Amino acid sequence: MKRTIVTGALGFIGSELVTRLLSEGTEVYAVVRPSAQLTRTLPVSDSLHIIPCDMSRYSALPEMIPTRDIDVFYHFAWEGSAGPLRSDEHVQLLNIQYTVDAVRAASQLGCRRFCGAGSIMEHEANLYLPLPTSVPSGAYKYSVAKLTAHYMAKITAAETGIDFIWGEISNAFGVGEISQRFVLSTIRNMLTKKTGDFTEGRQLYDFLYVSDMAKAFLQIGERGQSGWSYFLGSGQPLPLREYITRMRDTLAPDFVLRFGAIPYAGAELPAAVFDTSPLVRDTGFVPEVSFEEGIRRTAAWIKMNSL
Q: Does the pLDDT of residue 281 top 50, yes or no?
């Protein structure tokens, strides 16, 4: 690829993708919120152009970016992907509109392809919410917003004649993440405590180190088939308890695991959801970092930064 646009370019995965694109000689227009704190340092490069633009002003991007010869528009920007804002319907509804605005801006900029960042939580919403016995938490508003943004963006891409690819993020983790999500909170507990409470951990999960997630997005943006939604994972889904046990064995062999101490009421996703064969078939994707190596790197980073 010669030239790309990346929204959410200072985010966890977005910044990793920008770094990877630049390393491969791609010119990058990195779209960031004007008020964003530079919590992550992007590489210094003549091929990197910082475009301050709030999500509410994506319709103005064609005026801010001078070129019209762009290969892929990557859209990662999303407010409330973790924490209490997952349950804020106003925030999540705006995210849907901003995603549609991003597709329209991509089309007006002459981008050949639009590649959006989805979530495995889309499948959980589809499976759990229709059940008559479901009692969903407010966090499902995020899941539904991702699912709705996916389909609204796909429709808009068809209307505007731009190729559309959607990447479903499994569970990305690694150096640079600052949220309270599962992997980081579990690593912190294993480094500082003697025991940990978990669900039974029978539900399937798949984890992918952040550099591999960026690699997967680069490849689907470049080689993915238009109209496809690709699950981005390691290709090795396992019961969550097995991943937790591997984390314990890697970091703190004496840490006591209390499986079943916490009830689990969410959906148990079928193995078919975790199928990476379309990703491998169309892009040749192969992960570079093993789960254990990723855990070691992340733990070392947490210790170094006293997180």
A: yes
Euclidean distance between CA atoms 102 and 57, whole angstroms:
9
225 phi-psi bin (left φ>0, alpha ψ -120 to 50, beta other):
beta
| Yes or no: domain 3-176+206-237+271-289 corresponds to CATH 3.40.50.720 | yes
Q: Residue 286 — φ and ψ, nearest 5°?
A: -135, 125
Which residues, 6+ apart, have CB-to-CB distance to 245 below 8 Å? 257
DSSP string, 206-240: --EEHHHHHHHHHHHHHHPPTT-EEEES-S--EEH
Phi/psi of residue 58, nearest 5 degrees: -60, -25
Amino acid letter, 108: Q
- What's the CA gap between 32 and 9, in Å, rounded? 6
As a whole number of angstroms, the distance between CA 62 and CA 104 comes to: 10
pTM score over 0.90: yes
Q: Which residues of 113-143 are buried (b: 16+ CB within 10 A; e: fewer)?
A: bbbbbbbbbbbbbebbeeeeeeebeebbbbb
pLDDT at 47: 96
Average pLDDT over the chain, rounded to an integer: 94
If you average pLDDT over residues 57-83, what whole number do you get? 95
For the chain, domain boundaries? 3-176+206-237+271-289
Bridge partners, residue 160, by sequence: none
CA dihedral 33, 38, 40, 43 (to 10 degrees): 90
Euclidean distance between CA atoms 173 and 209, whole angstroms = 5
Sequence-separated (6 or more) residues with CB below 8 Å from residue 209: 172, 173, 174, 287, 288, 289, 291, 293, 294, 297
Query: Two tokens at 160?
Result: 């505007």
